[in-house]
Design a protein that fits this description.
OB fold (Dihydrolipoamide Acetyltransferase, E2P), Rossmann fold, alpha+beta, six-stranded mixed sheet, 2 domains
């Protein structure tokens, strides 16, 4: 899983809410696409709306751009209510996943188009286009047309066309969807660097978890029109607030159980996966007798041929499947209870006989701090 470290290098104005969404709702006939959403975004922040197809994230973005009219609620940008302001007068630029470059124009003509429409003087257009093409490293391709560019180059041109107008707010709708995985990862990092240089506030829509975690200062996870959880990438991943977020972000094992006892720092949970109670760090409100789920990430689980000494949380099972990923291997382990546990281990040893193999019985163990107790 690619992650960021809270994007501490991004210059975010902690004192100013640049975008405010209040009780925003959008209905299409009887379908509620966005449901009573409240949201604040700081100036200079890169913010990601993350969710599966149909969750409402693109509709929310289009309402910010003025391309959809809210059924109810309000949108404020830089303190100004946007309800009566048409899309072309909002301090917003939007980049779609198709890029929508003009095929008959060169790179520099595509980038200059918006400035020409705004009647900017020719000498200023020339200087601004030159500056922004240099920023996105497309100066050598200024005379090429879009069909002569790679996917990554077209993405840079689409971004340059937005940046040349010095937007206060950038809206990106699945900006990397058309790129292959390797190029997508490269462009994610480069796009963050460019946004930091220009100091723009950015809201991006994506269904790609790694993309959101790589680029965003904060993530909002959406489902069925609601925002389920908002937080920095590490918080959303390490401390999901419900089963949906735990399962949507990365891989996770969900272990069902019942709270047997609550101590100062840990909770004892009775579960069918082991005859002893599981010991999990207290991470939320729960009561004795409550039915809960324990969310346990695969990389938090240790894999061993030997029974772990001194570990409270351990189970024994048989390796049912292995996915070799080069730097790591993912083990699918079937427990005597029938429950399947996924564990991930770094491949520190090079030869296969030094690692567990198919049909082998192994031990899985984890620290009490590695699990998160979910009550919903």
């Amino acid at each position: 899983m690619i992650g960021n470290t809270e994007k501490s290098e991004v210059k975010v104005d902690e004192q100013k809410n640049y975008v405010e969404v209040k009780k925003l709702t959008k209905k299409f006939d009887t379908i509620i696409a966005v449901n009573d959403v409240d949201l604040t975004i700081k100036k200079g922040e890169i913010f990601a709306l993350l969710g599966s197809s149909g969750c409402g994230k693109s509709t929310l973005l289009r309402m910010l751009a003025g391309l959809e009219t809210p059924t109810s609620g309000h949108v404020f940008i830089d303190g100004k209510e946007m309800g009566s302001i048409p899309p072309f007068k909002r301090p917003v630029n939007m980049m779609f996943q198709s890029y929508a470059l003009f095929p008959h124009m060169t790179v520099e003509q595509n980038v200059a188009f918006g400035l020409k429409q705004d009647k900017v003087p020719k000498n200023q257009i020339r200087d601004k286009v030159s500056e922004v093409l240099k920023l996105v490293e497309m100066s050598p391709y200024a005379k090429r047309k879009s069909h002569q560019l790679s996917g990554g180059q077209m993405q840079r041109v689409a971004l340059a066309r937005i940046l040349v107008k010095s937007p206060k707010l950038l809206l990106l709708d699945e900006p990397m969807a058309a790129l292959d995985k390797k190029l997508r990862t490269q462009m994610q990092i480069e796009l963050v660097d460019i946004l930091e240089k220009v100091g723009a506030t950015c809201i991006m829509v994506t269904h790609d978890q790694e993309e959101a975690m790589t680029m965003a200062c904060r993530i909002a996870v959406m489902d069925q029109g609601y925002i389920i959880q908002i937080g920095p990438p590490s918080e959303v991943y390490e401390f999901p607030n419900c089963r949906f977020c735990a399962e949507f972000i990365g891989s996770v094992n969900l272990i069902e159980g019942k709270v047997k006892d609550i101590n100062a720092e840990t909770v004892l949970i009775e579960s069918s996966i082991h005859e002893n109670n599981l010991e999990i760090a207290k991470t939320g409100d729960c009561t004795i007798g409550m039915e809960v789920s324990v969310a346990l990430r695969p990389e938090k689980i240790s894999v061993s041929r030997d029974k772990p000494e001194g570990s409270v949380n351990w189970v024994k099972g048989k390796v049912e499947d292995i996915i070799y990923l080069g730097g790591s291997s993912t083990y699918y382990v079937r427990l005597p209870s029938g429950k399947k546990i996924i564990a991930m281990q770094a491949n520190l040893k090079r030869t296969i006989h030094e690692r567990p193999t198919w049909e082998e019985e192994i031990y899985l163990s984890w620290l009490s701090q590695s699990g998160v107790i979910l009550t919903s």
